[in-house]
Design goal:
With about 80 residues, the protein is an all-alpha fold. The chain has two domains: about 1-35; about 35-79, no CATH class. The protein is about 60% helix and about 0% strand. Keywords: Hydrolase. It comes from Streptosporangium becharense.
């Protein structure tokens, strides 16, 4: 992550893209090692995030319709 920070601080978009790709590569490799379908996990987190409500300051908040991600189901750990 140090490299990502350095690229941001330098305003080097090309290097930032490379460093972000490296982070994603490592994350997907780790997920594969542990048998995690990261695409399914991300889809569930996205679904959950879309149930959040906007606020006056532009940040999403957990309103009455918020549904937390059901990662146990996605990972097949729910029974």
């Amino acid at each position: 992550m140090k490299e990502v920070t350095q690229a941001v601080e330098a305003g080097d978009l090309k290097n930032l893209a490379q460093e972000l790709a490296d982070v994603v590569y490592v994350v997907y490799g780790t997920a594969l090692t542990y048998g995690i379908d990261l695409d399914a996990v991300l889809a569930e987190v996205h679904r959950s995030n879309m149930t959040k409500e906007g606020s006056q300051n532009g940040k999403a908040g957990k309103g009455p319709n918020y549904e937390p991600p059901d990662l146990a189901r996605v990972l097949g750990l729910d029974g």
